[in-house]
Amino acid sequence: DTGSSNLWVPSAKCYFSIACLLHTKYKSGRSSTYHKNGKPAAIHYGTGAIAGYFSEDHVELGDFVVKGQEFIEATKEPGVTFLVAKFDGILGLGFKEISVGGAVPLWYNMVEQGLVKEAVFSFWLNRKSEDGEGGEIVFGGVDPSHHKGDHVYVPVTQKGYWQFDMGDVLVGGQSTGFCEGGCAAIADSGTSLIAGPTTVITEINHKIGAAGVVSQECKAVVQQYGQQILDMLIAQTQPMKICSQIGLCTFDGTRGVSMGIESVVNGNVDKSVASDAMCSACEMAVVWMQNQIKHNKTQDLILNYINQLCERLPSPMGESAVDCSVLSTMPSISFTIGGKQFDLTAEQYVLKVGEGPAAQCISGFTALDIPPPRPPLW
């Protein structure tokens, strides 16, 4: 998992979690190379969590033996996430900066102990679920049988996660306008979907016909303030200041700061939440309108299009259904990385479950919003 940095396995001392009972467990008493640590540890993932304590032992990985590796013996695995998992534990391949307890990640020790020829690891994920082989991870290089041409390398911009700078996102060859000035992205092997800001995921899902949810706050913003926002953009008002100037956001480009304080003091929680939703809707409308203005659309077409997007917001459950029968007509979605455009076809960005009339298709895109002042993240 490139989105975390710790190695953990279920412990033989995990007595009260059903997930432990259904998986293979580590028995320290049977290891002659085990060293006791005992420092408590807990990890919270996007879905699921574990708790336990640190131990130290040799770890065998393929033909390698990593000596003196610090890892977590999980004694608690609550919930259903790991209950139904086909794996016993998680091997984190992120940076030490996000390692719980400051433990040195296994990959660091592999390099430090001279076990690999190159400080490179690579993944191949097999999309053909009917095959017996789910994929491959190579430590120390790249398997040439699983790629054509040269790889594109980009620098890590912030250690912790495998974070890099990404350029424009295009739908059907047309810019969404959202990442023209650059966006931050994380390569996370532990995430099944492509996650991005609600603003652009809504546009993508609209273009591919994915089912969404209707936002009444969004429709209210368009109805009450749509023309005013459009006029301000045409008059070249600074986009970041529009929503605060019309009174929907607190200050410039920040959300719910004073409102949050007010809600605690006066108990106006519902008011704060509603105001925050209106602010978010306004900020999305500004971005959408900017992009439509660049494409020289008429004002009526712009307002009508924004109103349609208000009915296509990504599902809070994270998954949006699409029609399996129209995959061939769906546009390509392109990401610009290292100056090169990478195109994904519908067959590549739609998850298809089952075959024939019973098949179900799900958009491979889900919304992920990072609270300000941090920049948007993919």
Automatic annotation (TrEMBL):
User: Superkingdom of this entry's organism?
Assistant: Eukaryota
- Principal location class: other
Q: Cross-referenced SUPFAM superfamilies, in alphabetical order?
A: Acid proteases, Saposin
GO terms in the biological process aspect are:
lipid metabolic process; proteolysis
Saposin B-type domain residues: 213-253, 275-316
- Extract the Pfam families matched here: Asp, SapB_1, SapB_2
Tagged with keyword Hydrolase: yes
Q: Which residues form the active site?
A: D1, D188
GO CC terms: vacuole
Which controlled-vocabulary keywords does the entry list?
A: Aspartyl protease, Disulfide bond, Glycoprotein, Hydrolase, Protease, Signal, Vacuole, Zymogen
State a single Gene Ontology molecular function.
aspartic-type endopeptidase activity
Q: To which protein family does this belong?
A: Belongs to the peptidase A1 family.
**Function, in words:** Involved in the breakdown of propeptides of storage proteins in protein-storage vacuoles.
State the PANTHER family in the record: ASPARTIC PROTEINASE A1, BETA-SITE APP-CLEAVING ENZYME, ISOFORM A-RELATED
Name under which the protein is recorded: Aspartic proteinase
